Write the structure tokens for this entry.
Amino acid sequence: MSFYLSKILWLIVNPFNIFIFITLFTMFLYFINFRRLSLIIYLINFIFIALISFLPIGSYLTYIIEKEFHTNTKIPERVDGILILGGATNPLLFKEFDQISLNGSAERLVESVMIIRKFEKAKVIFSGGSGIVNRSDLGHSQVAKLFYKKMGVDINKIFFEDKSRNTHENIIYSKKIAKPKKNENWLLITSAFHMKRALLIAEKNNWKFIPYAVDFKNIKEFKLTPNLNLLSNLNSFQSGLHEWLGLVSYYLMGKTEKFL
């Protein structure tokens, strides 16, 4: 239920959608002679869009989450298990062209190859089903399996969990496969901006991880200064807001004990 609810809520609060809906609404008000109100709402909407376009507010939202993982995590000599979270592939394009298609979070896969080879005796789980409504055939695991095979990794030693549709299910379904023990060292590989949410869910479900954050989106000395990267700032705001909404909504739904 929470999976479908999250999809619906994101359609409503997606900043691009809000901008379009408000613009259409102001046009409607204008044509029915509520012109002053229409102008006020339009100006507020315009100022908001201008702010998130000229200021890297979205990048700052991501930076707040990422900075906790700026210091390289000390990995112990013994690693009993490795959990790699999906989200680094484009299953639709993979199916369409029958070749590996990676997105902006490709580091989740690329870095994991080195970790898997370094800890040969560790149990490895790749978790990633389909996050697309009514398209269970478009899972990340099928793309990852071909990726690891082409990288020369023995895919027979990797457990591919392909039922999860979101981060909460990543952790829940993977734990059933892992059956982790209290004295085991488990490594979690995912994007830095996504790491906090995954760790909080794992903590709620009594699974302790050593974070191995990858795919950083911002430099360590980040400054919130105006720039002309308008489209980049808009896209960053969308992705940053999405992650913060995920943190807050998971907390409100009781899937985590805190949201930061």
